[in-house]
Design goal:
Strand 1, helix 1 (12-23) and strand 2 form a beta-alpha-beta unit. The protein has twelve helices and 15 strands. Helix 1 crosses helix 9 (255-267), helix 6 (104-125) runs parallel beside helix 7 and helix 8 (225-235) crosses helix 12. It has helices at 12-23, 35-40, 47-56, 71-80, 97-102, 104-125, 180-200, 225-235, 255-267, 287-298, 323-328, 338-355; strands spanning 3-7, 27-31, 61-64, 85-90, 131-136, 150-151, 156-157, 204-209, 211-213, 239-242, 249-254, 273-277, 284-286, 304-307, 317-318. With 357 residues, the protein is α/β, with parallel strands linked by helices.
Length: 357
């Protein structure tokens, strides 16, 4: 049976990938050691998701508590599966700006060294296998903050005649900017994925994601903004907005749409591909707009405060230009916008969150 390997299989994109590819007829091996609980606390643990997937797919899903920093263990796994692996989805990561600054060595070894370990295993045991890497728009650092943004009532916005008004494409430089330590570790991994593609002719892709979200996101204060925002609205917990008067803009892509892009790439892989991947102009919002939508859906007000100082290296405005991917893969399209995402997050989680109040 053909196999898909998914790292970070208990996380948002990882678990969505497990479901999609099991239901497409693959055996799936998930690598998940619940580092998220260490990063963000017990409430952000991925263990319940891993247990749920194991119970839902007992014959097709195998969960391994393997740390991708363990190069020997990663190599042994790929050697044992040689000839069967048809896709690698690399979604394991330390995903937070703030957490990275608290422990840079762990951040870098998870994001950069872990990625290198996987690429080496692929090179030796599955060199023709598509390798899909969940990168980030933080590889561009704070360069987007130098765009000539105009202040509107509820958001910052680019002039309509600006080249990036429809979304930022991959021509934006990653140099001469503040990335955050997280952005640097992910940029190192991103470049390594591209280099293994070019140097060894491995079909790799870097999806430089904006805000990835969905109802299974274990949102925490340091990561997972829409899920955590809706959770705070439901529970009454206070929410902190960092800087920009709450007018900073993000595009948001549902995990199902993101994994749909991975599936499209698998069907027609390329070497060393790079795409900005997010909600684009179809699915974006400012913090103020997101708060208003959460309050409307939940039927209650959010208790929130504004802190004047933004996070270091954080973006004032980010909307992805997904046109390049859509041109290369015309079978892909977005199926969710921000209100639809928030409604699904609310409906899937309101009962559990309300029971904790």
């Amino acid at each position: 049976m053909a196999t898909v390997v998914v790292t970070g299989s208990g996380g948002l994109i990882g678990s969505e990938s497990v479901t999609r590819f099991v239901e497409a007829g693959y055996d799936v091996i998930g690598l998940e050691n619940d580092m998220r609980a260490r990063f963000f606390g017990a409430e952000a643990s991925t263990r319940p998701v891993s247990v749920r997937l194991t119970e839902a797919y007992p014959d097709a899903f195998r969960w391994l508590e393997l740390d991708i920093r363990d190069a020997d263990a990663v190599m042994r796994l790929f050697a044992a599966e040689e000839g069967r692996i048809e896709l690698v989805v690399h979604a394991a990561a330390q995903p937070s700006h703030d957490w990275a600054a608290s422990d840079p060595q762990t951040d870098f070894t998870v994001n950069a060294q872990g990625t290198l370990n996987l690429l080496e295993a692929v090179r030796h045991h599955a060199p023709d296998t598509p390798f899909a890497f969940c990168s980030t728009n933080k590889v561009y650092g704070d360069t987007p903050n130098h765009l000539p943004l105009e202040e509107r009532e509820l958001r910052l916005e680019l002039p309509e005649d600006h080249r990036y008004h429809g979304g930022i494409d991959t021509t934006m430089s990653i140099d001469r900017s503040m990335h955050s330590l997280f952005g640097v570790s992910k940029a190192a991994a991103d470049l390594m994925v591209q280099e293994y593609g070019r140097y060894f002719q491995i079909p790799t892709v870097c999806f430089r994601g904006g805000c990835l979200t969905g109802p299974d996101h274990a949102g925490a204060q340091l990561h997972g903004f829409l899920a955590y925002l809706m959770r705070c609205t439901v529970t009454g917990d206070p929410y902190t907005v960092f800087g920009y008067d709450g007018k900073q803009v993000r595009d948001n892509i549902h995990s199902a749409d993101f994994v749909g892009a991975i599936a499209e790439f698998q069907r027609a892989p390329r070497v060393a591909a790079v795409y900005n991947m997010g909600g684009g102009r179809e699915s974006n919002c400012s913090m103020l707009e997101a708060i208003a939508t959460c309050e409307e859906i939940a039927g209650r007000e959010l208790a929130w405060e504004l802190v004047d100082r933004p996070r270091m290296g954080d973006h004032r405005w980010w909307i992805s230009d997904t046109a390049e991917f859509a041109t290369d893969y015309p079978g892909w399209r977005l199926t969710y916008d921000v209100p639809a995402i928030l409604r699904e997050i609310f409906e899937r989680n309101v009962e559990a969150w309300s029971s904790r109040v």
